[in-house]
Design goal:
The complex is a heterodimer of chains A (about 150) and B (about 400). By secondary structure, chain A is an all-beta fold. Chain A has strands at about 1-5, 10-15, 20, 30-40, 45, 60-65, 65-75, 80, 85, 90-95, 105-110, 120-130, 135-145. Chain B has helices at about 25-40, 60-65, 85-95, 110-120, 120-130, 140-155, 160-175, 190-195, 220-230, 265-275, 295-305, 310-320, 335, 345-360, and strands at about 5-15, 45-50, 75, 100-110, 195-200, 200-205, 210-220, 235-245, 285-290, 370-380, 380-390. A nine-stranded mixed sheet of chain B has the order 3-2-4-7-1-8-11-10-9, sandwiched between helices. In chain B, strands 5-6 form a two-stranded antiparallel ribbon. The model of chain B is unreliable at about 115-120 (pLDDT under 50). The chains are: A mainly beta (about 150), B alpha/beta (about 400). The interface of A and B includes residues 74, 77, 81, 95 and 112 of A.
């Protein structure tokens, strides 16, 4: 997948980490989180598990729904631990419930005041940094799903 | 394992503070204080359990070289915030299992300011806040903030309730000479709300104080405990139960990061504790919890069975959890007021509960206290509960 830099040049977008989500493509217009599915427990788990934590049986990869519901949120105004500042910009964090029964802890796009518990959410990409080739490395995030309002 | 015949015979502390006091000095001070409290020397100790989250390998061995070279078995324990509680539990189990007549649990950690330059587990944890990995540790203020926001949605809890809990613990800390936070005036909820916002709705005065310190507790079998009682005049303090559980899979289970555990973990661990001790929440005279943020204390009122689900806000409004109230919580200031140096935190709880049930807690004494509960969470994923009772 690619985006455009300020000069209009195409920038390749890549996952920051492998194994958590698949990038958008012709088949999937949004990123899709990769879960583990346990047939014996009939449960989905995210991030992927080495085996089912309930039945201890083998699990298989499944793509999760890109849409969910906001369970809770917060706005980190100051990255402080005790008196120590961690730096970084203020940002939102939340937990999103997906239809498969998975609760995802995630960065949120938007500002303080943009989120309400129970609102529809959509998975998206969040650029984090660039690699030495200029590729944009991304993680996943969630944003309010305007299409479902 | 039954802990019926295990007793706390000595407790000691070094003050918790942001000062960069060498951890070896603080640990030595706490260990000596506990032995003086019990009227014993180090050659009476049959097992030593060291709890710390920041420091080099075998830090407890270096400290034992200061306490005495007796050949005592030494073990190092780490369980995040529950490190000190876990060290205490190991000491209790050593005596309960007949492997030691007397065991010492010693918790210590430096202030984060010195950790930042010296490395260690806390430094690694703090550097992980910067990472954007899916598995990174989320800023604790943010994780518990999501609990707080959800609670406001579900039960109509207000930010004023959170501020009132925090102010209570700041004011309890004013009565504790070993606490990190010592306000020179009665702290008000308004003051708490006006402090710097960290992660909505958590302000800086709602967050646990982060410093360094040391705390120590010594446990023994009944025979030695009675000898100590006769020598020192301290009341016998029995360990009525020691319980530890980790996460079970629950609906909406969050797997990302280390600070993930479900709140229900406290309910199931408390149920096991009450059953083992043959006690219930109405038998308790005081309670300590992992009150790193006020929403935790509020939820633990309910999860420990002190009140019904959704009734915690009323306890706060009535002042029931203040010293002088029906069931005081965090009587030494808790994590918010006394401080949360990690390794010593659970043992600081044991220090206060022991002094309370002995009737030796001074200005913060809970009237007629006989039974106290100490609850601690480790990274939200380990829950440890001890109940101490004067016999």
């Amino acid at each position: 997948m690619s985006s455009r830099d300020p000069a209009g040049a195409a920038v390749q977008r890549l996952p920051l980490e492998q194994g958590y989500f698949v990038m958008p493509d012709d088949e999937n217009p949004t990123p899709r989180l990769i879960a583990s599915y346990s047939a014996t427990a009939d449960e989905y788990f995210f991030p992927r598990r080495k085996r089912c934590p309930v039945s201890f049986d083998a699990v298989e990869d499944r793509l999760l729904s890109p849409r969910g519901t906001l369970y809770s949120w917060t706005w980190i105004a100051n990255m402080k631990y005790g008196a120590m500042s961690m730096g970084g910009e203020p940002h939102g964090v939340g937990q999103v419930d997906l239809p498969e029964g998975v609760r995802v802890q995630t960065r949120l796009l938007g500002q303080m005041g943009d989120w309400q518990i129970g609102m529809p959410m959509m998975v998206d990409l969040l650029p984090i940094t660039k690699d030495s080739d200029g590729n944009e490395l991304c993680t996943f995030c969630f944003r309010p799903d305007e299409d479902q309002d | 394992m039954a802990t019926d015949d295990v007793y706390v015979i000595g407790v000691g502390m070094h003050p918790i503070s942001a000062a960069q006091t060498p951890v070896r000095d603080m640990a030595f001070h706490a260990g000596i204080a506990a032995m003086e409290d019990a009227g014993i020397e180090f050659d009476t100790v049959d097992a030593l359990y060291n709890g710390y989250a920041s420091g080099p390998m075998l830090a407890g061995v270096a400290i034992a070289k200061d306490l005495g070279l007796t050949g005592v078995p030494i073990t190092h324990v780490e369980n995040a915030s529950a490190t000190g509680s876990s060290a205490f539990r190991e000491a209790v189990l050593a005596v309960a299992g007949g492997h030691a007549r007397c065991a010492m649990a010693l918790g210590f950690d430096p202030s984060p300011a010195s950790v930042a330059t010296g490395g260690g587990a806390s430094a690694a944890m703090m550097s992980s806040f910067f990472k954007t990995s899916v598995e990174s540790v989320l800023l604790p203020a943010a994780f518990f903030a999501m609990w707080a926001v959800r609670r406001m949605h579900d039960a109509g809890t207000t930010v004023e309730t959170y501020a009132k809990i925090a102010a209570k613990n700041w004011n309890h800390a004013r009565l504790n000479p070993f606490a990190q936070r010592h306000a020179d005036h009665q702290v008000t909820p308004e003051e708490v709300l006006a402090s710097t916002m960290i992660a909505y709705p958590h302000t800086s005065m709602m967050a646990a104080a982060v410093g360094g310190g040391a705390a120590c507790a010594i446990v023994a079998d009944r025979q030695l405990a009675e000898q100590v009682r006769d020598r020192t005049g301290h009341a016998l303090v029995r360990v009525a139960t020691s319980q530890s559980q980790s996460e079970r899979y629950t609906a909406g289970h969050v797997f990302m990061g280390a600070v993930v555990g479900p709140a229900e973990l406290t309910r199931s661990t408390a149920a096991a504790a009450y059953e083992d001790a043959e006690l219930g929440p109405t038998d308790l005279d005081l309670v300590h919890v992992h009150d790193a943020f006020p929403v935790e204390e509020l939820l633990y009122y309910e999860l420990l069975g002190i009140c019904g689900d959704g009734e915690g806000d009323k306890l706060v409004a009535d002042g029931a959890t203040e010293i002088g109230g029906r069931i005081p919580f965090s009587t030494d200031g808790g994590l918010i007021g006394r401080g949360h140096p990690v390794g010593p935190t659970g043992l600081a709880q044991i220090w206060d509960v022991t002094q309370q049930v002995r009737g030796e807690a001074g200005a913060r004494q809970v009237e007629n206290a006989r039974t106290g509960l100490a609850h601690m969470m480790g990274a939200g994923s380990v829950c440890i509960i001890h109940i101490l009772q004067r016999t």
